[in-house]
Every structure is written in C-alpha cells, then in structure tokens.
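Justification of resources, computational component.

The compute hours requested in this renewal are based largely on the per-chain cost of generating structure records like the one below. Each record pairs the submitted sequence with a full structure-token output. That output is archived, and it is also reused by downstream analysis tasks.
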Amino acid sequence: MEAAGSPSPAASSFRGHTDDVQIPGKRTVLVVEDEESITTPLTAALAREGFDAAVAPTAAAALELARSLEPDLVLLDLMLPDGSGLDVCRELRRTSKVPIIVVTARGDEADRVVGLELGADDYVVKPFSARELVARIRAVLRRTEALAEPPPDKVIRVGPLAVDSARRLASLEGNALALSRKEFEVLELLAREAGRVVTRERLLQEVWDTEWFGSTKTLDVHVSALRRKLRDDPAEPRFIHTVRGVGFRLSEGDAP
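The structure output for this chain reads:
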C-alpha cells in the first residue's frame, strides 16, 4: 500500500488489496506475516469474503499500521524478521482491545498458551486453510462484538434469584451474593437460559476461552462455589441441576 508523501521504511512495506482506501462498512484485517506465499493468497481470500486486508511483514510495521489503521482484527504470526509476535501482542494489549488471532507452527503449544495469556483471542496452526481461517475470524469478531454491546438493562429473574447484567450484581431473595467474576458469568449464562440445559462446552467457550487449555474441572469448581452461595444442596438441588454428561440447568428454586 502506498501512502501520500514520503512513506517511512516500515510503511512502505504495507500492502493491501484496496490500495490503502478503506471501503465504508467493510471490516479490516491486519495480517502480520512476512511470507508472501501466505499473504498473497490470504489477502485474496479475505477480499472474496468481504474484508479489507492490510499486510505488515515486520513487528515494527505491525505496530505502526495498527496505530494508523485501527483494524477490526489482527492476524499475528509469531515468527517475524525483527522480533517475536508475542512482543507485538503484548504491545498491542497495552493500548488496544483489538481482537488478535495468533498464528503458530504445529506443536508449539507453549507459544499458543503464552499468546492466549497475553490477551490473544484465538490461534490457528500452520498450515491452515483459508476457509478455516475466515471462519475463525468471523467467530472471533462475533464474540468480541457481542461483548462490546451494552448489557441489557432489564434484570433477569429466575424465581427468587435476580441477575442484573448492567450492574453485574446477583441476589437471592433480595440478599446480594458475593460472586467472583467467573461465578457471576456462569450464573448469568444459566439465568439467560433458565429451564434449558446449557452444555459444559458452551459454558467453557463463553465464560472462558474458545480453546480452553486448563482442566475442565474448573467449571465444576465454579459451579460448586455457586451452589454453596445459593445454599443449594448438590444431592437435592433447588437451583442448579446437573444433567449428567451434558451440562447444567437453572430452575426457579423447585426440586427437579
């Protein structure tokens, strides 16, 4: 992509299929990757799927373009000529909430974990298909855009339980519940789906990460804590019922 005037060395290496002109309504993906054998077909695939694409082949170029372009999503390779993509991820997270998908070589689980801990939203493994990558981009954008939406004003009521999403408060029979952030998010999701079974996979995906690397027992720990605070007997639960092998269901406070 060419910029007006005398471009900086980093900026001179940016390339995009729209010749640096953003089309209103289109979402922009910043591709941080130095291999043209990947960027050329990838930018073409993104264009076919309705995205604007810009390419930064170095870490320095990525940070410069991220500041000037303010992309909707960053696709970040970890192996760059002038440094690590992990450093780029760390720097972006200091000032931006832009969704980041990390690209890593097969088998580098440590890099994937570190990337997610630094604030990446997902990862893809090389070699990848354009179709899978676009699907992941759309999934991350849907998830981050949903989180950015203002929470609903109305309070969710399930029997004597009240969950106030806007103020992030929950109460039982008018008494406030002292919940951790994750406990509240688990209860909120169960309350939104009250009377219906919420699968363990959905709870882990929506409350934690799409790709969860920790033990799935973390969900059981949070559910057990919620039951204690709801004064719910696991043997004869009033509120949170376990559906074996599937997930959990929140009721209005009656026995199953």
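The chain has a mean pLDDT of 82. Residues 156-250 form a domain with the Arc Repressor Mutant, subunit A fold (CATH 1.10.10.10).
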